[in-house]
Amino acid sequence: MNGTMSINKQGHLEIGGCDVVELAQKYGTPLYIFDEETVINNAKAYLAGLAELENYEVIYASKAFLTLGMCKLIEALGLSIDVVSGGELYVALQAGFPVNRIYFHGNNKSISELQMAIDVGVGRIVVDNFYELETLAEIAANKRRQVNILLRLNPGVEADTHSYIQTGQPDSKFGFSIGNGDAERSVDLADGFEYINLKGIHCHIGSQIFDISSYKVAINVMMDFILNYKSKGITLSELNLGGGLGIRYTKADQPVPIPEFTKFLVSSVKEAAEQRNLEIPRIMIEPGRSIVGEAGTTVYQIGAIKDIPGIRTYASVDGGMTDNPRVALYQAQYHGIVANKADQPAEKTYTIAGKCCESSDKLIENIELPQLEPGDLLAVLSTGAYNYSMASNYNSLPRPAIVTVYRGESKLMVERETYADLIRLHRIPKRWQAGI
Ligand code: LLP
Question: Is 6-34+293-422 CATH 3.90.1520.10?
């Protein structure tokens, strides 16, 4: 069980002090439940963990989960925010997020996105490639506006859950490679532009990382880079280490707790600075999944149950790959709890399927659950990150509502889409209106 989950006297699953069965009755299904306390605790753990450094910033990677309310919560908690498109920037601005705490990422920002970022005055633009650097310098010069940037570097450290490998020629669409001289050229170029203020460097080595030793490798590569430029008289005073900490989806996952992770980062940074006789730069990190992933639960209603003797039993839910595309996309594994039978023992093995017209639309394969009946409520855990933000309307399924729960109270965060929303932007060309 995650965060504030418990089982109440009726044998129902509770999240944030709210009975999940009651939430499903009140708000309908599928329903995303957002456990506010878990987000608060995670954000505070990051801030507390880095507080040992004098100069630091925790930047929430909003691609994981972004709504107006989330921006407000993130702002109130004292985090900054990263956006990767004009759309994400728009949401943050509409929420009134302090613009100097907005970081703008992306490997192919459009000219209008860059213009928008300069016009509103985002805190930092994280420049990804030469085309962007040159375009940005030109726009900034035309507007006579100083723009603060970080350069996204590719340190050649590939992280995965169990090991890291260092590659001389990393194959990635993101960032300036350190291995082949691009990173050095980007600094020299940026340094020469009148309206570009080069503040520092950024890297992001991956996502859902369990083996945190790869961060230390990246820190050393980045600090060597900083040292190299110090000797050339260019100060790179900010070091953004990206996001990537893994979370628990199933019992098999053993993520590193946030305090342990931040402790490791802080000690690695201090050690790297000491070894090179460098001042510790301003350290930024950009967690997304590890702030919000375990705070999310999706509740579905079970419908059709199909037993294929000797093969498997499918139990289908009223959502699926539309609200959670991660299973079909990444073979992601999830755990589920029957919310109205949370106190009952597991009796049978099920495969949980979605309602989309695709065989790959499965949410969980082979999970042991109490005997299921149509109408039961299945809570799928750890759906807070990259679910709502990656949801689609495939098969014209309206996107679910999001409700936030906190100490026994529930409040709508995003309304359920309606059928009318599905056709809001559709237009019928005039010639077709009376038949062709
Ligand atoms: N910073 C940068 C530059 C990133 O590209 C990302 C994620 C993050 C921070 C946040 O990483 P996190 O802490 O959430 O791991 N859709 C995939 C995940 C894609 C992550 C993309 N970048 C999934 O559902 O697993």
Answer: no
**Can you tell me whether residue 84 is helix, strand or coil?**
coil
Taking 50 as the threshold, does the pLDDT of residue 166 lie above it? no
User: Atom 5, ligand 1: which residue's CA is nearest?
Assistant: 204
b/e map 409-418, b = 16+ CB within 10 Å? ebeebbebbe
Residue labelled with tokens 């603060």: 148
Which pLDDT score is estimated for 178? 93
Instruction: Give the number of the atom of ligand 1 that is nearest the alpha carbon of residue 291.
Output: 13
For 241, 266, 287, 292, 294, the CA distances from 40, given in Å and listed in that order, are: 22, 21, 13, 9, 12
How many Å lie between the centroid of ligand 1 and the Cα of residue 191? 29
pTM assigned to the model: 0.96
Say yes or no to pLDDT of 164 above 50: no
Cα 236 to chain centroid, rounded: 27
CATH of domain 36-292: 3.20.20.10
Q: Rounded distance, CA 153 to CA 129, Å? A: 9
Pinpoint the residues of the chain covered by CATH 3.20.20.10: 36-292
336 alpha-carbon distance from chain centroid:
21
Q: Is 152 in the pocket of ligand 1 (CB under 6 A)?
A: no
203 is catalytic: no
3-state secondary structure of 286: coil
User: Where, residue-wise, is CATH 2.40.37.10 in the chain?
Assistant: 6-34+293-422
Ligand 1 centroid distance, CA of 290 (Å)? 10
Which position has the token pair 């990150």? 385
Residue 77 CA from chain centroid, whole number: 17
